[in-house]
Amino acid sequence: MSNRYAAYTKLKLDYPAKRVLRLTFDRPETYNSVDAETHTQLTNIWRDINDDPDINAIIVTGAGKAFSAGGDFELIKSILDNPVSRMSTWKEAKDLVYNVINCNKPIISAINGVAVGAGLVVGILADISICGKSARIVDGHTRLGVAAGDVACIIWPLLCGLAKAKYYLLTCKPLSGEEAERIGLVSLCVEDAELQRVALETAEELSNGAQSAIRWTKYALNNWLRVNGPLFDTSTALEILGFTGAEAREGLASHLEKRKPVFPQDCPI
């Protein structure tokens, strides 16, 4: 492994093929939940990948039965309780999305099992998103008691249309891999046993292709996302604002206590 990636101790990195880097969320005992340190590393690694002359394509996947269960409860609690942590996470949440968008190499996600939160950011933003039939994609923001920030508002309407985006982002209903493909949220759905093979074949094809043509095409297409930057900034700021209120505290408590949330019914907005 190149010294370029020595600092990324919370992510498993390997080279499954020539000029292909694979990034694996590797906390299978917690369904690959993302703690604060992992969140920071996941934000920053895309700049190093961008500058790595030995890499032409990236695969992102999860170890074990899940892609990623999203931010862990300690990270969420620190956002609730600590204003400095709240601001830091807000900056990282913005940087994560923009760093993935601006990374010059094509990214392929192999979504296995549950995909939520910060992990889902990369899974959905990937240039080619491939999921297994047993994938379970959930945007859990409103269930937690905060606005749908992260990548939700910048790309879900573009991928699956505003009506479907509103339905799934407001209700937090889960999507199977097959339904995600049907509505256009992901590029492709395959049999679970074929997921890693198809992802690797796709990465190798892109890695062996005309690099300037592929990278310029990605750059041009991602202008659809860049023009919606103000929309994304607003949604992420509103998500972080939500962590200052009672709804987010009840959302976290209900997750910890494994019960339905009981949110306050009055709202001045």
Automatic annotation (TrEMBL):
Family: Belongs to the enoyl-CoA hydratase/isomerase family.
Listed InterPro entries: ClpP/crotonase-like_dom_sf, Enoyl-CoA_hyd/isom_CS, Enoyl-CoA_hydra/iso, Enoyl-CoA_hydra_C
UniProt cross-references to SUPFAM superfamilies, sorted A to Z: ClpP/crotonase (SSF52096)
Domain of life, per lineage: Bacteria
Name this polypeptide is given: Enoyl-CoA hydratase
Signal sequence coordinates: none
A family per Pfam: ECH_1
Source species: Afipia clevelandensis ATCC 49720
GO-annotated molecular function: catalytic activity
